[in-house]
Amino acid sequence: MTATADGARVDAPHKRAGAVPLSAHLRELRRRGGWAALGLLVGAVAGWFLYTPVFQALQEPLLDVARARHDVVALNFAGLATAFDMRIKVSLFLALLLSSPWWLYQLWAFVTPGLTRNERRYAFGFLGAAVPLFLGGVALAWWALPNAVRLLTEFTPDGASNLIDVQTYLVFVMRLALAFGIAFLLPVLMTALNFTRLVRGSTWLRGWRWAVLLTFVFAAVMTPTPDAITMLAVAGPMSALYFLAVGVCLLHDRRLAARRALELESLDDDAAIGR
Length: 275
Description:
Blueprint: E1 2-3, E2 9-10, H1 22-49, H2 51-69, E3 73-76, H3 82-98, H4 100-111, H5 117-153, E4 162-165, H6 166-183, H7 186-195, H8 201-206, H9 208-222, H10 228-274
Parallel strand pairs: 3-4
Antiparallel strand pairs: 1-2
Helix pairs in contact: 1-3, 1-4, 2-5, 3-6, 4-5, 5-6, 5-7, 7-10, 9-10
């Protein structure tokens, strides 16, 4: 706060970067998007050469089921160009994972100019949390994949063959991995909104019931398996991360309130000395 001529106190504006025109924001968005696309392109090249071992790992859960059931459970390349198309899609999927630190950095770099100097320091902390959380979610999806494949293929009647379209299977794996990865980014988004002072921690806390409900709905929709185990594997960690993020936001709000109280006390002392 600052003192006016008649002794009244008014809130001092928070020191932020100057207003930036919309055209400048669009240019920055286009520039950051271009850098992110370049990172994806480099990741796709690496994914092209990693295709063979990755594809072998992808079909291993199906081979395990086939060995256990003594039935034909295999991927089917239905079209002439399906194998080539599959390689491109797997390369792009690997590019999304391999370049995740890069495109997440570009996302934060786009947000950072709108923050104060103190808030800008937290961007690197957010990035350091976002990358392992996203990759950790993908790793958890990879762990859940064999169980999901086993449960779904158990509906195949005895003596029947289960020839799975390879592109359908890839979409299944991608949905599972991205559902886990994006879900684990939720606490980073929450803390980012709190640190930019758009949402208070108490607001997140008041909405915890809706958050848990939406978390379970999201897990039920995005995990393409009918069992409750996989859904709980997504919803459980998401709920825990939500409450962890709420705690971080509340702690940040408390520190911010204490800092403002000290600033107000200092201004009152200065005003008293001036009188």
